Amino acid sequence: MRELTYIARRAVEWREVPDPKVRSAQEAIVAPVAATSCDVDSSILAGHGFIEPPFALGHECVARVTDVGDAVTTVTPGDLVVVPWAINCGTCDNCRGGLTAHCSAVPHMAMYGAPIGGDWGGLFSDLVRVPYADAMLVPLPVGLDPVAMSSASDNWSLSWRLVAPHLEARPGARVLVVARGSIGLYVCDIARALGASDVLYVDPDPEHRKLAESYGARTAEAIDPIPHGFDLAVEATGRVDQLALAVKSLAPEGVCESAGNHFRPGELPLLDMYLTGVNLRIARDNVRAHIPDALDLALSGTVAPERVVSHVIDWEQLPDALPERHLKPVFVRDTLSPQVAR
């Protein structure tokens, strides 16, 4: 089979590797049918990552199950499933506590799409081995478009986690979104659907701002800090100066969720944060615990994640199209039902 391999800045290629096989009764083999790039993949392709190539890329997809081990009970061949980005067993203390990105049954940071915690391959591959099928795979509910939900492996479900619990605790909260990619736009959609009283989206890209406005957000190309302006701030830029802007705009005891991958160092306004009483979380997301709730929200019809999909591209075009600068391209296989392959 082929796996898409990152080889240099703005360069990927197909490489032939052996077909994965079921190695234990707990495993499954899946074939990605709608896969997309995460916001961090854009940084990797731009040469900002911290891991030297080559390595298999991709960690967001909806896939079709092709084979399962004898002990797998939750999925069967032919099922469409969301494949979470982090490898997790579902039974260790961390997994049972919801910390699926910190599974103690595998090396720390085991994941698809980067050789951290071992080499698990990438989801831009013709076939993928899932070592703990019952724990990891989430059946895609009937009625959801695999193309629209291709990011449920990470960015869509992460975006749900960034805002939903806070809006439940603080109904009508004011939300600031400082972003550069799909996460910020998903957050605007989810925040509006869950009752935020005000959403301000900050991004220099006019097309991104137009999308955010379609979700009911106010927008700005750039802002100065707005002291005591927002109950919740979400930063998804990977730039520490923008994280500083977010935390300096919080109301007392406000919360900042940072979803940016900060590959470069920087300084935070710690005294301002202390005087305001800021709650800051910079976290590797335990996405498996949130996928069902995020899918339920998508099923509700109150959100429109499909608007963030910028391009639908044939699977065979991955080596040429992925390095191009697209907001949220989705690559589809010919095995995807024609009813949803748009």
TrEMBL record:
Domain called Alcohol dehydrogenase-like C-terminal: residue spans: 183-296
Gene3D superfamilies: Medium-chain alcohol dehydrogenases, catalytic domain (3.90.180.10), NAD(P)-binding Rossmann-like Domain (3.40.50.720)
Keyword annotations of the record: Metal-binding, Zinc
Domain Alcohol dehydrogenase-like N-terminal: 25-139
Cofactor: Zn(2+)
Protein's name in the database: Alcohol dehydrogenase catalytic domain-containing protein
